[in-house]
Amino acid sequence: xxxTTFPLPTDGELEILQILWDKGPSTVRAVNxxxxxxxxxxxxxxxxxxxxxxxxxxxxxxxxxxxxxxMYALPQEQTRKALLDRFLENAFQGxxxxxxxxxxxxHRTTEDELSKIRQLLAxxxxxxx
Amino acid sequence: xxxTTFPLPTDGELEILQILWDKGPSTVRAVNxxxxxxxxxxxxxxxxxxxxxxxxxxxxxxxxxxxxxxMYALPQEQTRKALLDRFLENAFQGxxxxxxxxxxxxHRTTEDELSKIRQLLAxxxxxxx
DNA sequence: TATAAAATACGAAATCATTCGTAGATAAAT
DNA sequence: ATTTATCTACGAATGATTTCGTATTTTATA
Lengths: 129, 129
Hints:
Two copies of one chain form a homodimer. The first copy, chain A, contains six helices and three strands, in the order αβααββααα.
């Protein structure tokens, strides 16, 4: 049904994944530099985390050269969906509609996003089927 | 601007809050019984967690009687919103629209919820202003 | 009244996530 | 060729969360 299941990334791991999704294959140095644009993190901290993520299958690593290059193992969408499923269950007990209401009620959404959402809702409208 | 800020509940604490939001003021025994409908948890585990939550201000406690009665400190909506904000930032880098799309795309939402959402979107439609 | 049951308090183990220091290997620079 | 810089590996400290055992007190029961 579905491919081999990976553990969900922790918050720290997710920070790194965001960088890899954004920048593509990167060295530890590159990832760490990006991290330090946001907050102070030691080089070996980033290295260690990437090694752990590799051992968990969250990233892949090209170690054919001395300087290793890391890459995300799963696409952003798939990971976000898995995280969302867990959060929806934990915080909203699965009530997706409640969550959307909370989101639309309290957050800025761009006009572009809103129109995509309207389109999606229109497609789901039973009157239109 | 806003009242005193409390720490966000952990996942374990959230499980207990869900029970308190559902059942209202409850004894440790009552909370623990509810917990055990879902999974095996020792009585003192539930007790300890409630005591920690009290010390954090996440619940209030009536200890005027020997058998203490616990109650949530904040309404469900407020807590959910705070959790959602953090999650949205962590997992979706603040892109609320992306998150809604992911939700509507992949999850069952009831007709009732969908119509509430349509209403909310209609209210936001600039053409309707 | 003596015993048993049930409650709270609290210490502490177990696990996980995060962080960094140090050691050792390799490459670059002088 | 030394020295310096940069890299990976890895152990380990720290802190947070979860879990439970034990001690103590209080209430209910026999």
